[in-house]
Amino acid sequence: MTIYLLINILGVLLFMGLAWLFSKDRKTIHWRSIIVLVLLNIFLAWFLTSFSAGRFAIEKVADGFNWLIETSFSGIGFAFSSMVNVKNMDVVVSALMPILLVVPLFDILTYIGVLPFIIKWLGKGLSKLTGQPKFESFFAVEMMFLGNTEALAVSSGQLKRLKSARILTISMMSMSCVSAAVIVVYLQMLPAQFVLTAIPLNIINAMIVTSVLNPVTITEEEDTIYKIEKTDREPFFSFLGILFWKQGN
Prior knowledge:
The chain is built from 14 helices and no strands. The chain has one domain (2-248). It has helices at 2-21, 31-49, 52-79, 81-84, 91-96, 99-111, 114-130, 134-146, 148-154, 156-159, 164-174, 180-189, 192-213, 236-248. The N and C termini lie far apart (51 Å). It is globular and about 60 Å long. This is Purine nucleoside transporter. Residues 93-190 form the Nucleoside transporter/FeoB GTPase Gate domain. It comes from Candidatus Enterococcus lemimoniae.
């Protein structure tokens, strides 16, 4: 256990040292915020892997995702029984077909406002706790739920208002992210609790690295989140038609 702990401490120090070495402006790095992020990541790793309540919570979330995948196979089996109800299921079917349910489900939850509500308040809490800019915190939580492409699309209005240094931060954070579709594939290859534990840890790590590599100082006036007007949003059933047309193509 002691050796395991020392290896992890050494890994964190090496990780931070490399980021500092390649930093664009070492003098303006906000070390207080970064230390809070590191401590938050350590706490999450401990809570989700070593604390009974954390393990219970992540197992329940994993059970929910597994249920979604099983439900998707029920639908796929109804339409393509020869592909699903077989002894040796093709890897393409087992890994990729559940995406046809999970990704549209995330899009629907975004449309009706469930995911935006969760993302908004988690982003605010993360910003308040760590001292990171509001939008960067908001975007990090967006990536955790929506993936890179969807998060960039949702935040396009905000991105047009950011200065180039902050856009670079967002671009680097985006490189650490995986989409809901890829997560579904991972869930078919690895135990769900490991995949779901890695997602929030990965997001916090992305914030740590970008804060060291590309430190940005912003004013209070700049630290805002642009509110997107929804007056042009399609009716729900039109949205469903467009969504499933995209899935089919």
